[in-house]
Amino acid sequence: MNIAILSRNKNLYSTNRLFNAGTKRGHRVDVIDYLRCYINIGENQTAIYYDGKKLGRYDAVLPRIGASQTSYGTAIVRQFEMIGDFVINKSDAIKSSRDKLRSLQVLAKHGIDMPITGYASHTMDIHDVIEKVGKTPLIMKLLQGTQGNGMVLAETMKAAESVMNAFKQVDADILIQEFIKESSGVDIRVIVVGKKVVAAMQRVAPEGEFRSNVHRGAATKHINLTPEEEEIAIKSTKILGLSVAGVDLMRSKRGPLVLEVNSSPGLQGIELLTGADVAGEIISFIESSLK
Description:
By secondary structure, the chain is α+β, with helices and mostly antiparallel strands. The protein has 9 helices and 16 strands. It has 3 domains: 2-89, 3-Layer(aba) Sandwich (Rossmann fold); 97-112 and 182-290, ATP-grasp fold, B domain (D-amino Acid Aminotransferase, Chain A, domain 1); 117-179, Dna Ligase, domain 1 (2-Layer Sandwich), CATH 3.30.1490.20. The chain has helices spanning 13-24, 70-82, 91-98, 100-109, 126-133, 157-169, 227-239, 268-274, 278-290, and strands at residues 2-6, 28-32, 37-41, 46-50, 53-54, 60-63, 86-87, 117-119, 138-142, 151-154, 174-178, 186-193, 196-204, 219-222, 244-252, 255-262. The strands form 4 sheets. It has a 5-stranded antiparallel beta sheet with strand order 14-13-12-15-16, with helices on both faces. Strand 3 and strand 4 (46-50) form a beta hairpin. Helix 1 crosses helix 9 and helix 2 packs antiparallel against helix 3. It is globular, with a radius of gyration of 20 Å.
């Protein structure tokens, strides 16, 4: 098979692992910097160009689109879809997962539980939204934030109102979320490929930090998922139309809660911790899908 990996850098751990997993199974694998692709659209031509040359057809396209390049990256992914290539995660699914509010709305519609979340535009509504989400402390997130950036823990109602007002002054969209005290600083990353969980780990924030992102020094630990947690991770991935995803969960008194679904999950931390061959599972999924 001919497989294209859309990635900015072949030397990134996740990209390199996918490249090696594909070539090891005898496939031709090209790593394509999607920001260097450009497209021509017309009645009789729908072409993708890379490095000055028109790209041929691929059996499968594996997008690894960075959060800061979502708009351009998904436009390129959509063009691969238009010419009929098999794309692992479709452009609309990537965009939906990147839009935190939209993804939560879609998941909630299908019965997925999550921390109570509020969203408002007018400052006159802020106080009421905060009260409806729950008691302080509250989590406040920028819609565009990634890896824990743009996330604040508001300890008091007055602090929450101040944060909301400050962000509204610069026209930033922000979500207000319920603080799950029993899981403060702890969450679970689950990797779903197709219709199964292939790896999972727990992330524990360093002392004094409520964000459990590995990039912020969180420790990783082995964890055994409950059947309910596995089911919710797989269902959330399917609802958003993804075939490969990293689903972030939190354990609460009322059961597992979905925090976020990532369409381009990093493989390094979870593969090195668990020993799981996530990259191999993704290539295997491509093979079985094309059969």
